[in-house]
Amino acid sequence: MSELVARTGRHQQRYEAGRRLVAGCIPFKYTTCVDDVDVDVDVDVSSKKVVQVLMISSTSGPGLLFPKGGWENDETVEEAALREALEEAGVRGDIMSEGLCKAAMYALLVKEELDSWPEQSTRQRSWLTIPEAVESCRHPWMREALEEGFLKWHEDHMITTSENSSD
To answer: What is the pTM of this model?
Structure first.
């Protein structure tokens, strides 16, 4: 059982033009993929970084989601996104981007994956490759945030990182 408690209710939620404002994250991490090669002592095995994103089950139907929820009056939109990642997916990390779509979705580089979190009894979490995540998105707007927001940000960030490391 988690010692953390999820916020509930909508009395502190922010609204704009009658619509509830939400914030969330596309949690991601890097794994190392080693090519399928018979490893010899003298052979250098090539490996590459693969990005994986974390999705969670929905409590209201089939399909997978990125953690997201209401942005409350006593927090910034970034704090709301971090809180939702912790409550719904049990991960902590660093926000790495500006909001990726109208719903204020952020790239979150995962630094810690908790064994216990507030909504673990109602949610399953799954690490997926980008193509798997695109296929699994329950909502078209989440797929759009992944494809047009996160992937573009990730490509730009990786180019910037590789340019800086070659100096």
So the answer is: 0.66
